[in-house]
Amino acid sequence: MTSQPRRMTMVGFMQAGNVTVYSGSWRYPSADLGFLDLDYYTHIARTLEHGRFDMVFFDDRLAMPGVYGDSVADAVRYGARPVKLDLTAVLGGIIGATRDIGVGATYSTTYFDPFHVARTFATLDHLSKGRAAWNVVTSINDSEAQNFGLKSHLGHDERYDRAHEFMEAVVALWESWEADALVLDRESGIFADPDKVHEIRHEGTWFTVRGPLTVPRPPQGRPTILQAGSSGRGREFAASWADVVFTGDPGLEVARTHYRDQKDRVAAAGRDPGSVKILPMAYAVVGETRDIALEKERLFLERYVHPLASLALLSELLNYDFAKHDLDDPVTAEMIEASSGIRGLAEGVRAHLGREVTVRDLAAHRATLLQGPRFVGTPVDVADQMQEWFETEACDGFVLAATHLPGAFEEFVRMVVPVLQERGLTQRDYAGATLRENLARA
């Protein structure tokens, strides 16, 4: 028997709000500003499904950016992600409007409880016939903490300790109904077999959960798990739990090193490295000619991003108030010590630029298109660049972010996907009955 050729896993990265990860996206002249309308999200999901993407996934944050200057004013004024809709309703609408594409959402292990999350994703998995995915995050900034009655967020190690126990409780709840527990015998009046529905009796450091879950075993057994931790603890957590790992590596060599490290950690955790997909977040700027694509890229980089929007988002991301610095201040050791996230970001930007970095560089990196691979050019150019990353084991596919919506995804599906499909790099149809099965065939 010959093995199936390896193919790219493709995920469309979304936010249920006014911007994509690129904070200037709402200002692009052809951008659709209907982000408060369900049709906006179902149209994008159907577009990605037409391009045979494996999944549409939604990032989330539980606060308006308010670390910069201890105020939300600049986030509101410049549209730096002040809008975040509830994802359960958005995913429900997408499930009803699509048939095959996976649907994923971010839920925090810091501010939710295991029973709530287990029930939410088991329900989504049933309603979608096995297409649900949960992006596990630990939440990192004080703005979110202050919306949940706390003054500041938990420390790094505490967040991951809590997250591990959270996962144990959630998985136990998903498994609290055996696969054949439902009887549904009208004649005898037996609905389900009580010997096959179990209390989990979880008692740990962080949680006490009796169970069982009020939703029968999900179609996937357990919904697909996504994770994006980049620290040592984050990579270990992903090795233990994740089916899909999101990365943000700026260049090929860094990405290849990260890829090998994460696969080794998966193997050390006793899991099959081939079962875990490692996907960098990427942008594609496509044009009918190379000059058109380069001009579009220039506009995205130079015209549509306000520097204060950048700093509002950067402050939120790193839980550090950059209002105390000028844009041209260098990144110092003191700044790095004040926030664990600054070090990794500064090192990545330094590697990308080949010089020491300033606050302006960090802000540009966060708010423009510099935080991961950027594929620019004609459809063939973009396909060539993606193929190089994929075939040299820098990744197993991509989390494609959008410069503007819905145009960036429409252009990619119309122009690049046919090239990738012709080369046998992406799927022409969905092979599995569930998201988990479809990913396993990649």
Put the structure in a nutshell.
With 442 residues, the protein is an alpha/beta fold. It contains 16 helices and 13 strands.
What does this structure look like?
The model has no long low-confidence stretch (mean pLDDT 92). Helix 7 links the parallel strand 9 and strand 10 (244-247). It contains 16 helices and 13 strands. Helix 7 (232-241) crosses helix 8 and helix 14 (379-391) crosses helix 15 (407-422). It has helices at residues 38-50, 73-78, 87-97, 114-127, 142-146, 156-174, 232-241, 252-268, 290-302, 307-318, 333-338, 340-353, 359-367, 379-391, 407-422, 435-440; strands at residues 9-15, 55-59, 102-108, 132-137, 182-185, 190-192, 202-203, 208-209, 224-227, 244-247, 277-286, 374-377, 397-401. It is 42% helix and 14% strand. With 442 residues, it is of the alpha/beta class. It has an eight-stranded parallel β-barrel with strand order 1-2-3-4-9-10-11-13, surrounded by eight helices. A two-stranded antiparallel sheet has the order 5-6. Strands 7-8 form a two-stranded antiparallel ribbon. The protein is globular. It folds into two domains: 9-297 and 373-440, Luciferase-like domain (TIM Barrel, Alpha-Beta Barrel); 306-367, no CATH class. It comes from Pseudonocardia benzenivorans. Belongs to the NtaA/SnaA/DszA monooxygenase family. Pfam families: Bac_luciferase. This is LLM class flavin-dependent oxidoreductase. Residues 36-392 form the Luciferase-like domain.
